Amino acid sequence: MTEKHVYPVNPDFAKRALITREQYDQMYRQSVDEPDAFWGEHGKRLDWIKPYTKVKNTTYDYNNLSIKWFEDGELNASANCLDRHLAIRGDQTAIIFEGDDPAESRHVSYRELHEETCKFANVLKSQGVKKGDVVTIYMPMIVETAVAMLACARIGAIHSVVFGGFSPEALAARIDNGKSRFVITADEGVRGGRKIPLKKNVDAALRNENLGGVEKVVVVSRTQGDVPWNEGRDVRYEELMKDASADCPPEPMNAEDPLFMLYTSGSTGAPKGVLHTTGGYLVYASMTHQYVFDYQDGDVYWCTADFGWVTGHSYILYGPLANGAITVLFEGVPNYPDSSRMGQVVDKHKVNVLYTAPTAIRALMAEGESCMAGTTRESLHLLGSVGEPINPEAWEWYHRVIGDSRCPIVDTWWQTETGGILISPLPGAFDLKPGSATLPFFGVQPALVDNDGNVLEGATEGNLVILDSWPGQMRTIYGDHERFVQTYFSTYKGMYFTGDGARRDDDGYYWITGRVDDVLNVSGHRLGTAEVESALVAHDLVAEAAVVGYPHDIKGQGIYVYVTLVQGEEPSDELKKELVQWVRKEIGPIASPDVIQWAPGLPKTRSGKIMRRILRKIAANEHDQLGDTSTLADPSVVDELINHREFQ
Ligand code: 6R9
Question: How far apart are CA 318 and CA 404, in angstroms?
Fold first, then answer.
């Protein structure tokens, strides 16, 4: 790294910053050397109904795995996000809602959000929802979604938010896996001027015979669109809210009681329900939100994620609200009505902190600097990035064009499983290097290991593991604890394996290089290659399919599919289109294949394992670097694929 690639701490930002480099060094040391003292102190940032006397009780011992934080404490997440703010900031804005239509926005105060949440919590109770029940939320980005999540938390129900872009089939699989008896949805969502038939999708999902267990579907009116109605099962949000009492005492929850589950893709099998608990998660989400975004009272903070992903949970809802923040909730997309929308929203609501994804930045970059014309963005003082590695060019562009060369950028590395940010700059403390997530947050002990699990020292590259637990860590995979232990703790015994690779430089800065397993990251969305493959082979004409990622200018990774048709079937462009539609139907538009290549055969080892390494190289047009192909059962397959490679 040359000096010109280092951005020293911005002196103006340092003046207001909560944490200096000296403080970071001292606090980090304590967090690792004396975790009980450190987290015992910082756990007090929340209101506890019953204070904890124990702090950290965790072991990564493979045969004896156990993760508990604040285990004898009791609290309620919704009370921490709402009730405790009423006396000091009841009339302050909690949520600024910005509609898909730029003419539509409104402010919701903490008092209003509290009242709606209490009412809806009573509604859920009246519909039979009890503590420990799983409630599926399939909603657009509207205030009622925040209300629904907080209302679940208030009564101790476990919410399971399913991204509104998922297909009925994907929704059905998640409802089924969670044995969820309740669904909350909206008539339709609106994004980029287009309607999304959420209620219709729920109906289609529930037609699946295995889902007979769903008792109630609560439907919020977003568009007042005409939707089919199933008397007895479907109930209207607005009608139930009319008569609901606004008095609903928060349920005391043990720190280790579940708060929510959220499905995410792994390298094998069906998506897994990542389970987060109450105390550790909320301490960690709120503390990272405060320090990473240097959040201070009155700052207007905008995270552009969706509630369907973990970023929406931790950094639109729980972290910010626990901190009494003003959080922007955006229903739309960055390029509607046109590509100046992001700048427009920043100016309209005087946003100080903008947290978005590299894919959005690259899409704007492709439009050219004119996409910020007519906006000043002068309110911004900090930028954030999440979801995938940010390439230095996109970082520089974000810094220069969106942030007017004035705002530090926090490149935050974390995962659904980690609950909150693990590696990120603290903006008033660290010099920045474009493309590096820099250093670990308090209490986080990253390490790089070789393929045999040996810890590597100094400047090097390897598999990224975490050596000890932090409070926000997931506790299990819903309904499959064994899979949890296997997935995260069996590759390198005694360590949490992230699935990512990383490089560490001479300053100890981490550079995340991307997944080292069979997980794709398409526009910041995680997808398992196995998921896309099983969708494809479910098609009658597909005999076999192999899916790999390839470098894509905007999406980060695109989806490259090799398909072998059943004997006697002829490849055609129509069939390609049909397969793309098929995958969209099975999973959702985010899984649309970018390239389909017909493959008369796939490169396999003699034991029949598909050699994806080779398929990745062909897709990336790097077939001069195939490496060792001597273990292939039939090497001629490779030449055939190279000769018929699809051009992107
Ligand atoms: C929060 C979130 C997790 C995977 C993760 C990694 C990639 C996320 C990143 C990043 C490089 C960053 N990732 N943030 N890679 N730099 N700042 O995205 O969770 O959807 O579970 O994805 O995303 O590969 O393992 P999730």
Answer: 30
Ligand 1 in reach of 309 Cβ (< 6 A): yes
Separation of CA 164 and ligand 1 centre (Å): 20
Q: What's the angle, vertex CA 59, arms to CA 56 and CA 65, rounded to 5?
A: 125
500 lines ligand 1 (CB under 6 A): yes
30, two tokens: 């304590």
Sign for the pseudo-dihedral over CA of 424, 425, 431, 435: positive
Q: How much of the chain exceeds pLDDT 70, in percent?
A: 99
Strands 93-98 and 258-264, bridge-based pairing: unpaired
Q: Cβ(395)–Cβ(363) under 8 Å? A: no
Query: Closest ligand 1 atom, CA of 412?
Result: 17
**What's the rounded Cα separation, in Å, for the pair 9 and 6?**
9
CA distance 364 to 335: 8
State the Cα–Cα distance between residues 168 and 458, nearest whole angstrom.
48
Q: Is the pLDDT of residue 627 over 90?
A: no
pTM of this structure: 0.96
**Close Cβ partners of 569 (under 8 Å, ≥ 6 residues apart):** 541, 575
- At 80 the three-state DSSP class reads helix
Give backbone dihedrals phi and psi of 525, rounded to 5 degrees, phi first.
Answer: -100, 135
Segment 416-440 shows an average pLDDT of 98
User: Sign (positive/negative) of CA torsion 114, 117, 123, 124?
Assistant: negative
Known binding residues for Mg(2+)? 537, 539, 542
The CA distance from 259 to 276, in Å, is 6
DSSP 563-602: EEEPTTPPP-HHHHHHHHHHHHHHT-GGG--SEEEE-SS-
Complex ipTM: 1.00
Alpha carbon of 91 to ligand 1 centroid (Å): 36
Ligand 1 atom nearest to CA at 414: 1
Q: How far, in Å, is the centroid of ligand 1 from the Cα of 414? A: 5
CA dihedral 126, 130, 133, 139 (to 10 degrees): 30
CA distance 179 to 119: 25
- Dig out the tokens for 324 from the structure: 């009494």
For residue 69, give every residue at least 6 positions away whose Cβ sits within 8 Å of its Cβ, in sequence order, or none.
39, 55, 56, 57, 58, 255, 256, 277, 279, 280, 283, 469, 471
Q: Read off the DSSP letter of residue 457.
A: -
Cβ-contact 527, 519 below 8 angstroms? yes
For ligand 1, say whether the CB of 264 is within 6 Å of any of its atoms. yes
Q: What residues form DSSP beta bridges with 520?
A: 527
> In this structure, what DSSP letter does residue 83 have?
I
* Nearest CA among 157, 160, 156 for reference residue 170: 160
Q: Does residue 355 contact residue 542 with C-beta atoms inside 8 Å?
A: no
106: β partners: 97
Q: Is the pLDDT of residue 239 over 50?
A: yes
- CA-closest residue to ligand 1 atom 17: 413
Bridge partner residues of 410 (DSSP) = 384
Q: Tokens 């959080």 belong to which residue?
A: 327
